[in-house]
Specification:
The protein is mainly beta. 6% of the residues lie in helices and 36% in strands. It has one domain. The protein has 1 helix and 4 strands.
């Protein structure tokens, strides 16, 4: 577990295209997945301080949802 929660932006380095819209997403870590879903009007970056705490033994998946 990290000593401090890092505020480094999450890398949304993948995209999924749905119709004419694209959803950016990324993943960090390995192990059983945890999916982080943000609310409106936020982005996946709301999880940037939480993700480092769970990725020691799990993978974190995060998305920038349409909206």
């Amino acid at each position: 577990m990290p000593q401090t929660a890092d505020a480094t932006p999450l890398a949304l380095d993948r995209t999924f295209t749905f119709g004419d819209q694209s959803v950016a997403w990324g993943t960090v870590g390995s192990g059983p997945p945890i999916v982080f879903v943000h609310g409106t009007p936020f982005s996946a970056q709301v999880w940037r301080r939480i993700v480092p705490w769970v990725t020691a033994d799990r993978s974190a998946w995060f998305f920038d949802l349409l909206g």
